[in-house]
């Protein structure tokens, strides 16, 4: 089967960088009060700046699809081919702009291309790797010669006060819980994209995709990062079963939250997946030159390092690259935005390898992708 | 990568699978859902006690199966057995402090999972130089150090108990780093020179993890 090359990368970060002090000017103040968990959340994730697709009054400047299309255009510009060569599009996001149809349709329309094949991937962060894998295999199988992959997120719109102030339990408390508020200070907006071809660039470096390995561990864990459901005594109740969306919103079944205790229990499973790839010699530690790991916050990184050192599976920290601290956690877009900056920095050399890692707490998933600089 | 790290890699993988799977057993799932009852805590203690009392005995048996070439390692096994052989008393005291009868726990039968676990342990401990049992220790110690403390805190909170009523679970979670270094020291001694030992340690860990889960799944199942 033919080899597949990542020949262009694009990153679209809306608006100016927003400092920690300015965040609530954009995402607002729930019940008119400064968040009591803001400082604790920022201490944990160590993010210093991020971008929002909102203006300070909370008005949307773009849609998620527009940001994805902008990133794809940048990836095409940066490659040696043109936008019109794309015949397959795989779009990923945690949440698209609407419920139906899939985001990929709107991204396609935004690109202004004639008819192409599309695929839509919705999960949390790991949906980016699902989209990558789909495009990778389409090209490998000879179905297409040029594909675009995108990841885009517009989380901030779900963090505006109105999403919480309608919840009856929060109205009584005049406050929202940490598991919801932490995400408001962790996730932000942006899009990233990659352009894939069955031939390498001729005048600039390409990243050859060696393999992509994604595993779901949903058989072992309950829902962890959730939007659209709430936990009742009998189990999960989804927003669609409340009779009307207003009732769902009032019951707290329409906003995002994350169970941190459950996520911590996922760490060993993610590490175990990595160790298994070492056993199978897909990952050879001595041959990894760069690591792009989409850990969602700095606190998780430290815990993973302890386990890796014990198993002799640690890749030297000097090889780790992340722009989480300046570009924010943009969910499915993060891995593209990281790769784009690493590539643009100009330090990559032919023969080097890049290990990409995207864990997802949603219902426990984990993915790796190995790239070789050619 | 050293041989010790290679064994640790295998053990961490077994542990990772085990730690997620054990959370799915009905009793622990109930605890994690915040629905634990005092009855459940008493059941956990009763079904745990037979394994705790046997633990130091199979370690002592394993020690006596170690030949003179490994005298250093034998000392460590025996010391470990001595350090733990009275732990069951703390567990019994916890049981009595939450309304259990001492006689009921002391005379409780082993459930069928516990029977299977111990038949395996004693069989292995009776083999010459049974260092594969280091894999068993990794799982059981890991459970004490990583899970027991978490469970202890949750049980204490859900049932509004005092520290001394969950002391058995809480006390095992201390000293994690120290135990782990001690374990790596034994692995780093000459035991890995025994042919096939690296693989045997990881395999025994996997068997023990499966049987331990069986013990938690088969509460009050006596045949």
Question: What is the compact description of this entry?
Answer:
The complex is a heterodimer of chains A (374) and B (223). Chain A has 374 residues and is of the alpha/beta class.
- Corresponding CATH superfamily of chain B: Heme oxygenase-like
The CATH superfamily of the largest domain in chain A turns out to be Thiolase/Chalcone synthase
Quantity of strands of chain B, as a count: 0
Cα separation of the termini of chain A: 18 Å
Quote the beta fraction of chain A. Answer: 15-25%
What class would the helix/strand composition of chain B place it in?
mainly alpha
Number of helices of chain A: 13
Biggest β-sheet of chain B, characterized?
A: none
Low-confidence stretches of chain A: none
Topology of chain A as a string of helices (H) and strands (E):
EEHHEHEHEHEHHHEEEEEHEHEHEHHEE
Can you tell me about this structure?
- The complex is a heterodimer of chains A (374) and B (223).
- Chain A is 33% helix and 23% strand.
- Chain A is α/β, with parallel strands linked by helices.
- Chain A folds into three domains: 5-197, Peroxisomal Thiolase, Chain A, domain 1 (3-Layer(aba) Sandwich), CATH 3.40.47; 207-219 and 258-373, Peroxisomal Thiolase, Chain A, domain 1; 225-257, no CATH class.
- The longest helix of chain A has 20 residues, at 260-279.
- The model of chain A has no long low-confidence stretch (mean pLDDT 95).
- Chain B has one domain (3-217): Heme oxygenase-like (Heme Oxygenase, Chain A, Up-down Bundle).
- Helix content of chain B is 73%, strand content 0%.
- Chain B contains eleven helices and no strands.
- Chain B starts with a helix and ends in a 6-residue tail after the last helix.
- At the A-B interface, helix 10 of A face helix 1 of B.
